[in-house]
Amino acid sequence: SGTESWILMATGRTPTNIAVIKYWGKCDEALILPVNDSISVTLDPDHLSATTTVAVSPTFDRDRMWLNGKEIPLSGDRFQSCLREIRKIADDVEDEKKGIRIRKDDWQKLNVHIASYNNFPTAAGLASSAAGLACFVFTLAKLMNVKEGCGKLSSIARQGSGSACRSMYGGFVKWTMGKDACGSDSIAVQLASESHWNDLVIIIAVVSSKQKETSSTTGMRDSVETSPLLQHRAQTVVPGRILQMEEAIRNRDFASFARLTCADSNQFHAVCLDTSPPIFYMNDTSHRHDLLYHKDKPFILNLYLNDNTIESIMAKFQAAYTFDAGPNAVLIAPNRKSAGLLLQRLLFCFRHQQTMN
Ligand code: 2P0
């Protein structure tokens, strides 16, 4: 009846993921189909994750969304595509206690309210869209009693943001580009679970909290249109690297893992430089100094040493580095001991800088 005033909610939490073989370039912009496969590692949900509550009620007159407590427009068609796709596969829901009975077809008429929080600074230039979109799709599917598995959900999250499809699983995940023109096989698959290689330690060094100047979406569009290196990378380089990376992960072979991770980050940034006009995501700081490291409070690290590039420090400390579409460094150490030494060095440099000032 028109006086119905119930509300039904679901909450989920999803971590972000860090690509070790990068996605850069689409062959279909609307469906978000990539030009190559990619591989990532999903972070621990205690760090860099999105928590999303989705609610439906007959009293809601339109779809609305809040991010970190502030209402944001839901105008972007990416959220709308995900909503549309989930509504299509939604199922009946019955909650006798509350007297709620929703039929499959009712979902089309029910508006949703979405409230999402990131447990990390959104402005820090860290990929928040991957966690946000994956969490939204996962939670909405739970609310709407969707029976399909994570593969199908990953293909829906992909239409929200490419990298989001990889956050549908924990551990190591591959996004296979697929062959189907409709994108039905452009999905995420889990290569190894969280427990397979759980001594790896991932350190995120926030170099700059400024919002990046070129969004990933426009950046990759420009690269596809203008970079000859991108075509070479997608067709000739990445397929081999995917196989080698899968093997390195399977064997927990850190030396190969680190070599491939660093090489692929370098090539992704080379493609950005090969784009016309060139895109600079890394800055001098990324390579050299002024590492701003976030824990409870941000603080500045200055690397004053002779071998003061991230790349050389990583080689010394047996760690891998990878940079996404921004200047922040993601450092991966093989174990806690290496990570401890690496952090000690970074902290030493920080103290050094403090006394110098
Ligand atoms: C990745 N990045 O594989 C690569 C590496 C950034 C560098 O996926 O347009 O936000 O929403 O599909 O997923 C960032 O791009 O772009 C990204 P859309 P997305 O993680």
Commentary on this structure:
The protein is an alpha+beta fold and 357 residues long. The chain has a domain at 8-195: Ribosomal Protein S5, domain 2 (2-Layer Sandwich). It is built from 9 helices and 18 strands. The protein has helices spanning 77-89, 129-143, 150-158, 216-226, 228-250, 254-274, 284-287, 310-316, 336-356, and strands at residues 8-15, 17-21, 26-28, 33-34, 38-42, 49-56, 64-67, 70-72, 93-95, 100-102, 112-118, 172-175, 188-192, 201-205, 291-294, 298-301, 320-323, 329-333. The strands form 6 sheets. The protein has a 5-stranded mixed β-sheet, covered by helices on one side. A 4-stranded antiparallel β-sheet has the order 2-5-12-13. Strand 7 and strand 8 form a beta hairpin. The chain is globular, with a radius of gyration of 21 Å. The protein starts with 7 loop residues before the first strand and ends with a helix. Residues 288-307 and 352-357 have low confidence and may be disordered. Ligand 2P0 binds at residues 19, 22-24, 32, 38, 129, 161-163, 216-217, 324-325.
Q: Helix content range of the residues, please?
A: 25-40%
Largest sheet, spatial ordering of strands: 1-6-11-7-8
Question: Radius of gyration from the CA trace?
Answer: 21 Å
Sequence stretches where pLDDT stays below 50 over 5 or more residues:
288-307, 352-357
Secondary structure: number of strands: 18
Reading the helices and strands in chain order gives: EEEEEEEEHEEEHHEEEHHHHEEHEEH
Secondary-structure-based class equals alpha+beta
Bound small molecules, by name, code or SMILES, are: ligand 2P0
Shape: globular
Q: What amount of the residues lies in strands?
A: 15-25%
Second rung of CATH, namely the architecture of one domain: 2-Layer Sandwich
| Mean pLDDT figure | 86
Q: How would you characterize the largest beta sheet?
A: 5 strands, mixed
Q: What is the CATH third-level topology name of one domain?
A: Ribosomal Protein S5, domain 2
CATH class of one domain: Alpha Beta
| First-residue to last-residue Cα separation | 69 Å
Number of helices: 9
